[in-house]
From TrEMBL:
It comes from the Bacteria. This is Membrane protein. The keyword Transmembrane helix applies. It holds the Pfam family PMT_2. Keywords: Membrane, Transmembrane, Transmembrane helix. The keyword Membrane applies. Residues 56-160 form the Glycosyltransferase RgtA/B/C/D-like domain. It comes from Labilithrix luteola. The chain crosses the membrane at residues 55-88, 95-114, 200-218, 271-297, 309-328, 334-355, 360-379.
Length: 498
């Protein structure tokens, strides 16, 4: 109950300000609304590699609680909480409830790298499936031999289904594979070859079945390879980015916060917090290193050693993947290191057993404190000190803009991508806003309806738009019959007659 309450309570600032969501998440919500109208699709709108799994989950929440940005956020967060429970339940088999809770706390008081998935879909469904795979494989260490086959097959299937839902859990496949193989030979004594072979067959069969949807999806028209490419051409750039910004942010010894919406700045933290963050990261590094060598520490039970090694293995795998990924661009790429937090509980299990709960708590505490403070500060305008903000002021501007446009009978508009789909969801499609750059379209019917409207609006949000306002005004004036300029708080709106 503490795990459940804490997981939601720590996200209260974002939940209170769910209407300030981003366009990537809004696309999931909009697709969920259309799913409830019978308009289903295998892929996420505008994507040929991410499935609509998160959209279907959101649709189920919308069916129960109504469609809104808050319910959309709750759909993703509930998936994260479910994944947190899988981690806790796995650890609970090896430790007392309180020690398991202590180990799982990084997923509760998580930094911004985890917030980006736990609060804003899409991708959380795939991560939850991957964490469920660890739980299922670990379940194969107990029960009858037939039950072990079932659990191993389930774990293999869940791992590949996770990758089918979104490519991101590929980074966890080596850890899941090692965990499965070490579970097949479930303890240190030599077992019969036939027994091991049957377990391996069950694991491989489950993985094969889980891979089938991925294969079938990528045979469909419109399927794309997506961000699964690797390159060594940018390694030097990625190393600098990793060392200077992304790894410190992911491990909470450097904190960024939203100065204004999408404008993230480093927090000028007090010296005491900087020291806590650095000490916490160093101690976490030592804990992970101990997890990597734990298979050789026979004083620790094998079930804990194999879990610790698998969790710790995710750290070099994720960092190595970061260095050669084609998707790493800037400091926001720290989100690709979210698995470091997700796997920290497993990686720390051998150290918790070796040190005992009290001594381990002292060693783990600096990282937990740094993570909690970094995660809270990272909410930016959604918090004021230790208190959450009930509603960000920017929403007043959004609703003023809706009123202005509704009064003029305007139902279609265009804006920068990061403004467009967010406003469409917020207006419950009573105002449909398409990206100014048609290449960024996620749903073609919106574009067709926009292009047939004789009058439309152009919305410029200084906190989100990447476009030059003066340049946009000149272009609209040159290519249209009439342009009227309006203001809604910080928003600038042009009402355009074609």
């Amino acid at each position: 109950m503490l795990l459940l309450a804490g997981s939601y309570a720590f996200r209260l600032p974002a939940l209170l300000n769910a209407r300030s969501t981003n366009s990537d998440a809004a696309v999931v919500g909009l697709q969920a609304m259309h799913i409830l109208r019978g308009e289903a699709a295998p892929f996420l709108w505008g994507s040929g590699y991410q499935t609509a799994t998160d959209s279907f989950v959101a649709a189920a929440f919308f069916a129960l609680f109504g469609a809104s940005p808050l319910v959309l956020m709750l759909s993703a967060l509930t998936l994260h909480v479910l994944g947190t429970w899988f981690v806790f339940a796995t650890l609970r088999r090896r430790f007392t409830s309180w020690t398991a809770l202590l180990l799982t706390l990084p997923l509760v008081v998580s930094p911004s790298s985890v917030h980006s998935y736990a609060l804003y879909p899409p991708r959380q469904a795939s991560l939850t499936l991957a964490l469920a795979a660890f739980w299922a494989i670990d379940s194969a260490s107990e029960g009858s031999e037939r039950a072990r086959w079932t659990w191993l097959a389930s774990g293999g299937a869940l791992a590949l289904l996770a990758v089918g839902a979104d490519p991101y859990p590929l980074v966890l496949l080596p850890a899941i594979g090692v965990f499965g193989l070490t579970t097949i030979a479930r303890d240190s004594r030599i077992e019969r070859f036939g027994t091991i072979a049957k377990r391996f067959q069950a694991f491989a069969l489950g993985a094969g079945l889980g891979l089938l949807p991925f294969i079938q999806l990528h045979r469909l028209a419109g399927a794309k390879k997506g961000p699964m490419g690797l390159t060594t051409n940018m390694v030097s750039h990625h190393v600098r980015l990793l060392v200077d910004e992304c790894l410190p942010w992911a491990l909470s010894y450097k904190v960024y916060y939203a100065h204004h919406v999408m404008d993230y700045l480093p927090w000028d933290a007090p010296l005491a917090f900087r020291l806590v963050g650095i000490v916490g990261a160093v101690l976490l590094g030592a804990i992970v290193c101990f997890g990597l060598v734990s298979p050789f520490v026979r004083a620790i039970p094998w079930n804990i050693r194999r879990l610790g090694f698998a969790g710790a293995l995710a750290f070099p795998t994720a960092i190595g993947g970061f260095l050669v990924s084609v998707m790493v661009m800037d400091h926001f790429s720290m989100r690709y290191l979210a698995v470091l937090t997700l796997m920290a509980p497993f990686a720390a299990a051998p150290a918790a057993r070796f040190l005992g709960t009290r001594r381990f708590a002292l060693v783990f505490a600096p990282h937990l404190v740094a993570s909690a403070v970094a995660g809270w500060v990272g909410y930016g305008p959604f918090v004021r000190g230790a208190l959450p903000v009930i509603e960000a002021p920017e929403l007043r501007d959004d609703y003023q803009a809706f009123d202005l446009l509704r009064a003029r009978g305007i139902t279609y508009a265009e804006a920068d991508y990061w403004t467009a789909y967010r406003l469409t969801l917020l207006a419950d499609e009573k105002l449909v806003v398409v990206p100014t750059n048609a290449v960024e379209d996620r749903y073609p019917p919106y574009r067709r309806a926009f292009e047939s409207a004789p009058v439309f609006a152009y919305v410029h949000d200084p906190g989100r738009s990447r476009e030059n306002l003066e340049g946009a005004e000149k272009m609209l004036a040159q290519t249209n019959a009439q342009v009227e300029k309006l203001h809604a708080g910080a928003l600038t709106i042009f009402v355009v007659t074609r």
